[in-house]
């Protein structure tokens, strides 16, 4: 836990803390490890030796599955959205995320955007397994019912360190936020700062996840959609400057896909009076620093 001293927080009477989930495990940091925890256990229980998942070329989740395979003895397959690199050019044409995934033992296969849109269809998944062999399938972003209990454990861990009134987290697929909601069980508040454009659909996704996991939906959260900086994996000079200045002030590196947008949004919300005076807000650094 790290205190974040920002003038806007002092002016608004808000105590701002940072939970450093990026430091928990350097090989498998952040919320991706939490989402995978019970999925890996299920794969082991089912006797599966291979993990298969989906993601874009800069996916934190793809990188995490590859690292988990290396650490815990699974073969891994990544079905990547987009065109394959030019043949014969090797790792030099892969971006750092995919290069690390390959170094961790992941076999990469590429899907055009039309095929990739079918990634959640049971028939399409069956086709891939018939072609690539049996595997435990982890959905894009690692978000499913088994992802939630791993993320829910964050609530107790943070609560052991401090009293708090609200948690704040970056949102991609909504799984981490949904897990936090199940851990809070309707108490206190969660703010989700959405990293993608047109993220209004996420509230229905989050409600569906908690309904499946704990047979309940929650109202003690908000989804903030004004801080996407153009959409998923998009950024601006303003955001990059913010990330650089944040590191200079606090010694913490944020990424331009998730956590940079999270903290930009949280500080803006504090300045707008979103959090009541006297409250303690814990923002969660979910890793993703290869970005």
TrEMBL record:
Its cofactor is pyridoxal 5'-phosphate. Pfam families: PALP. The modification N6-(pyridoxal phosphate)lysine is found at residue 32. This is 1-aminocyclopropane-1-carboxylate deaminase/D-cysteine desulfhydrase. PANTHER family: 1-AMINOCYCLOPROPANE-1-CARBOXYLATE DEAMINASE-RELATED (PTHR43780). Residues 9-287 form the Tryptophan synthase beta chain-like PALP domain. InterPro entries: ACCD_DCysDesulf (IPR027278), TrpB-like_PALP (IPR001926), TrpB-like_PALP_sf (IPR036052). It comes from the Bacteria. Belongs to the ACC deaminase/D-cysteine desulfhydrase family. The active site is at residue 59. GO terms for molecular function: D-cysteine desulfhydrase activity. Keywords: Pyridoxal phosphate.
